[in-house]
Design goal:
Low-confidence stretches: 1-17
Order of helices and strands: EEHHHHHHEHEEEE
Helix content: 40-55%
Radius of gyration: 16 Å
Strand content: 15-25%
Bound molecules: zinc ion
Oligomer: single chain
Amino acid sequence: MIGWCLWTANNQLMPGNYDMEHDVLKMLAAYRDGQMSREDFIRWFDTQKATLSTQLPRSSFLQLRYASAYVAATALAKVLPACTNCSTICPQHTFSSWQEYKQCEGRVDHAEAVGTLLRMSPPAWAVDIPKGGGADGYYRCAKCGAVWGIVRPERQENGSWRRLA
Ligand SMILES: [Zn+2]
């Protein structure tokens, strides 16, 4: 899980061999996985500020520390790598048709049936999601812990499959 990316000056993720300190990734993952409250995470964050400011893109650093728990979760989705088990189920996108939704839903159902994805109740931070922006189904990758959400198309909304944390 280390040595997987490189932050460029403008905060874009690039393939490369940047080493983010293993302990930092472990703590970020522990927080994402619910092993630490937001308060405890912020307390830890503040003790590591100097290190974290050099290891995280500025936008992620600020979101993890000062934004709502939901926005912090979206920052985690950018900072923590997802494994190929979950990232290859269905491309992250907004569906362009009902058929596309059904196709993705079928793959997600299959991934759940074989144990690749674990269906979960909405994470605590889901209460911070702007109204109408929540997912209809939340899943955790059994291997890497990444959190994914599927949104069913409804009225003008097309629905989507996205990594949430
Ligand atoms: Zn995964």
